[in-house]
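Incident log, support desk, overnight shift.

02:14 A customer reports that sequence design results differ from what the structure should imply. Their input is reproduced verbatim below. On-call engineer (initials T.W.) acknowledged and began investigating.
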């Protein structure tokens, strides 16, 4: 396999390229935008299973160096109720990292290992085993990997009737405040305010980072969201969260220049076809759970590694794709289902807002067993050194 074309240079693309290199295969990344994603995006949490997958491709230590560990989670409800969220003691912390920093680490390592990245190459169509780009340039491939996100072009090429992403009804915004919340830096607080959901943590270097899932009347692309002046976004944020504690203080101590909107939040419904011929999907193009899952980036990294493992061990490409899907579909769809249930709580109606302080403590005691709910997710490990060839006949 001499020519693996990876469409998309965000998170999934570089991890796929690194995993393929480890498996003895070369790949070229084709990125639609004219430059990389330096400085773009908010923060995300990498779960222990995601960090374990990064160990396989040799970048976990570099990611840890730029991340902040989170060992404890707290939930607050309507400024009145504060609940300690149960966690797992045997898997290690979450690692909170800015998306731009994660991207930089992955890209730099991919380039260091000889992966070629071509910018300004927006895929428009595929002719047999040739990718055709918007400037009419072409690239031959043996395998084409769609790592091009929730608005994937490759997904439509595989299946013109494939479902598109579903908007959650919320936009994502983030900022860094000079207000220091009275929390340990390794504590993340998930807050259900009077009119919306937000989260925050104290930065080890000073100040606090906050992020919101802002209820909004229509989805906005990143470009559309950035056309709105930051002053207008701050007005909307204060209107929504200004009465919350500490939401209001966090916002009032946030410089306009540190406030960024990252656009609409989407989830992917179940995608019927992950592959066709020599094209295959990885990451958000195939499975993008709500950010409520805490697993979006980690599942993307896992899938990239498992795809490379299957291509390494199974010579027949369609069979390798089928095995990859068998290894991944059930896992990612279980996580998506859990996150979908949690997502409804982010935009509760007036009645549910009043009931949540009463219901949540009961749910934590009776239903929210971390070993049962997140244990299988966070303890998952890919056995890179074991061949998947023997499982091919089950796919």
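02:41 Re-run completed on a clean worker. Output:
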């Amino acid at each position: 396999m001499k020519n693996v074309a990876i469409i998309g240079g965000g998170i999934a693309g570089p991890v796929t390229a690194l995993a393929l290199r480890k498996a003895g295969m070369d790949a070229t990344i084709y990125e639609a935008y004219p430059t990389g994603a330096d400085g773009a995006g908010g923060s995300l949490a990498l779960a222990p299973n995601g960090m374990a997958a990064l160990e396989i491709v040799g970048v976990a230590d570099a990611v840890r160096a730029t991340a902040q560990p989170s060992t404890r989670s707290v939930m607050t409800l309507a400024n009145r109720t504060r609940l300690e969220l149960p966690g797992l003691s045997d898997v290690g912390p979450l690692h909170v990292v800015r998306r731009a920093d994660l991207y930089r680490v992955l890209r730099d390592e991919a380039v260091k290992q000889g992966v070629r990245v071509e910018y300004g190459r927006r895929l428009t169509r595929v002719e047999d085993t040739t990718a055709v780009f918007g400037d009419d340039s072409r690239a031959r491939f043996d395998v084409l990997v769609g790592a091009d996100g929730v608005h994937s072009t490759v997904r439509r090429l595989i299946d013109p009737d494939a479902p598109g992403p579903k908007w959650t009804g919320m936009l994502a915004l983030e900022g860094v405040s000079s207000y220091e919340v009275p929390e340990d830096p390794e504590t993340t607080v998930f807050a259900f305010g009077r009119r919306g959901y937000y989260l925050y943590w104290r930065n080890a270097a000073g100040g606090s980072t906050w992020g919101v899932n802002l209820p909004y009347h229509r989805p906005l692309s990143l470009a559309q969201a950035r056309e709105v002046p930051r002053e207008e976004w701050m007005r909307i944020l204060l209107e929504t969260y200004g009465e919350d504690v500490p939401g209001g203080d966090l916002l009032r101590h946030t410089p306009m220049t540190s406030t960024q909107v990252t656009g609409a939040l989407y989830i992917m419904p179940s995608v019927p076809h992950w592959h066709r011929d020599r094209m295959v999907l990885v990451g958000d193009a195939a499975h993008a759970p709500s950010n409520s899952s805490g697993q979006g980036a980690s599942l993307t990294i896992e899938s990239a590694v498992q795809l490379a493992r299957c291509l390494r061990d199974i010579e027949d490409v369609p069979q390798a794709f089928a095995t990859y899907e068998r290894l991944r579909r059930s896992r990612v769809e279980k996580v998506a289902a859990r996150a979908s249930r949690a997502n409804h709580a982010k935009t509760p109606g007036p009645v549910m807002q009043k009931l949540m302080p009463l219901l949540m403590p009961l749910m934590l005691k009776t239903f929210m067993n971390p070993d049962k709910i997140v244990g299988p997710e966070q303890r998952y490990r890919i056995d890179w050194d074991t061949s998947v060839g023997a499982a091919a006949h089950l796919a």
